[in-house]
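Supplementary Text 2. Reproducibility record for the structural model of the 207-residue chain.

All settings were left at their defaults, and a single model was retained for analysis rather than an ensemble. We include the record here because the model underlies the residue-level annotations in Supplementary Table 4.
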Amino acid sequence: MTAPRYSEEKEYETLRAELLGGKKYVFERPILIITAALASFQLLEKDHAIYLAPIVIWLLSFNLWFSVNRMGSIARIAAYIQLVLEDGDSQWFGWETSLRKYRKWLKNGNLNVKNIQINDDSVYDNLGYYPVIFYVHVFAIWLSTVLIIAYAVVSSSILTGIIACISLISSGIFTIYALKNSPRIIRPQIEQNRQIWKNVFKTWSTL
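Retained model, structure tokens:
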């Protein structure tokens, strides 16, 4: 691996720090939500604690959405670092300027990141912890849904039944989104972003 040129060293360090911060966020946030939910469940009375289920579902659904966005940002930064800062022969324009061109390239009607076709042989396992975090979200949300539905059946309460229905619908929406952002879908993002960056730099003067 070629070391970044001196003029780019500070940017390299900044982007590397942002990468690590993004990874830490993706890993820690769902654990924090689940831990807080379990602690609240212990503190509240059983009749009230069961209503935490839809809150947990909504929080984890939002967190997965945010995590997917973070993974996209991580892939975009990693691809930029590989192509620009770790390639001694590349031309350096700076991250913010390059990111502006990147967004303009997408806005000009070019393909979405996920639609970029790449050679499967070039994809390596760069997800690390994402599959585990992904399935933690899926398990926690559907466990919460099953618990609230089971409680609604036992309690025969209209209010609990309404909350169970809301939880079930929310979990269904979450599942649709999760299927569209499964580890298999997210896995090639770095390689896809590499191709986008190459196109951006190739058409730089027109953007």
